[in-house]
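I hope you will forgive my troubling you with a question about protein structure. You will find the record immediately after this paragraph.
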Amino acid sequence: MEDKVQGIDLTKKRGSIVFFDKLGFSLTFISAIILIITTASIYIFVASKGFATFFVNGVNIIDFLTGTEWNPLRTAEEGGPLYGTFPFIFGSFAVTFMAALISAPLGIGAAVFMTEIAPSWGQKILQPVIELLVGIPSVVYGFIGLTLVVPFIRNYVGGLGFGLLAGTIVLAVMILPTITSISVDTLRAVPREMKEGSYALGATRWQTIYRILFRASIPGFITAVVFGMARAFGEALAVQMVLGNAPLIPKDLVSPASTITSIITINMGHTVSGSAENNVLWSLALLLLAMSALFIFVIRMIAKRRRFTS
């Protein structure tokens, strides 16, 4: 019996619906599989290259992580080559933490202004500014740092201008929109009843911000800062342009330094694939991946804690 209602063939319509359901499921499933395979492939490939330093080239992992001298060109007769990467690890952590120290209070303060002090016009002004900062390419940040920040430090602080301080300032500006955006979302997620209850008990606006909003938003603020640090730790080009790129542990804030990313970008094009020096750079890339995974793990732990406490 033909299944028709008002001239519409229901059997054909059901078949069409089932077809598009299966097509939608297949496309989304394939997308998810490609995403998983791509991520796993990147980690496996970088790990295979990175571990070759220790299992193929025989570099001691302790010397690799704690050594302070980087000289891949030194011959074996002269005691080389030397692959001490501690100056780069130190430089990466130093600029990342100092940039976070500058950007965290600025980003959280801007978020409070946007959401609590001037929510109407403050958002209209600051939101486009944040979006513009996000859209600026890292090479432009580096060029501005090279043109303005480095000469300013050279003239008014000391040294050559290249160093941790210049890298920290450039990175602090770069991660500021990340911290601000996530902090804004965190403050907006605080239940309105909590603020209204605080005002009903006679608290002032600043008492409500400090005692209610800040305390309720601490996990979100930490997430924002960790996200910013993750971006700062992996930034390469802008930092490389202002850091000085000296393979040494800096003596002060105005001494040239290097980060893991800067040493990879500088040397990757000058090494032969499969050589010890090339494998050492892959090991540094593996270290970067491990740090990124650690940042993501910390963010997920904070998110879990927020769900548990909410």
